[in-house]
Design brief:
single chain; 353 residues; TolA/TonB C-terminal domain; five-stranded antiparallel β-sheet; 9 helices
Length: 353
Amino acid sequence: MRRSDFVSGWASIGLAAFLASASAVWAAPGDVVVKPDWTRKPPAEDIWPAYPDAARRAGVIGKARIECKVAVSGRLEQCEALSESPAGWGFGAAALAMTKYFTWRPETVNGVSIGGVPVVIPFDFGASSGEYGAVVIAAFDRDARFPRLFDPIWSRAPTRAQVEAAFPPKALGKVDSGYAILRCRLAPTGLLIDCNDLAESPPEFGFGAAALTLASRFALSVADYKPAELKGVSVDIPVSFLATGRPAPRLVAPQWVSTLDAANLTVVFPREAVAAGVSRGGGVLKCRATHEGRLAECQVISESPEGLGFGQAVLKAADFMAMNPWSMDGAPVDDAVIQVPITLALPEPSAKP
């Protein structure tokens, strides 16, 4: 069992936000501009599962700042960590992991929603209590009121066609994207039960109900868990909707579940490089992701060093790689285009005693 996947808690975390830019670049003088704003901030039980495990155990509290863009659907995208304090404890990554719980009202110019407006969100992981510290963290670690599986690995997830087919009829012709969050309990088999729509954006178009129709198509990969370990555990699932005909978005940060291991490294490493005494190289691939999370139709964009077979080597390495079939942004990965940098490095020879 991967202990760090499960976290429970009861306190809250300080959370604020401010616009990264003072005015919309799309607005002209005289335009009526309404800035982006929250439609949902997560409660404590949503935030605590992301608290860095090592920091929690050590009694360390911290802060982070991230920058995201607000999509027309109201979800946050293209997020990146700007800073974290203290460094090295994972607070930046924790803040990024929480963005799936946020929904926003996008910026509007003369009543038209505009996507891509940047916002900066500061997180204070110790703002809930003046007496917050190691003692509170220890109590929080023993509290099992909010058992939650964070960033699950799915053995099965909806396809892009199934998500498109679930696009709510009420939204057709009015909005071309939407977002919802499901909260479900996990059955010992990995299937989802007792699901509820936790949030939806934009509201009143039925995206929450549409997400519920997809719940039966998810199944958790249960190989790492005993059935008793999943008892009473819940999971939150973001679901992003695009109207039919919209191209699959570029996949930026896949969640890899298998990569090239040391045993297979020697199989794919180019013999030309070995003969030349080169022990490190690689390349960049452009691939299409399949529904199962595999890489297909890969093409070599670049290799380094050139002329030693690293282009063909990284193509072979792609056969050993697989990603979670449901992205952290809440979308199926099938048909998404992805650039994959791969580095191949032979281990240094052991020094003779």
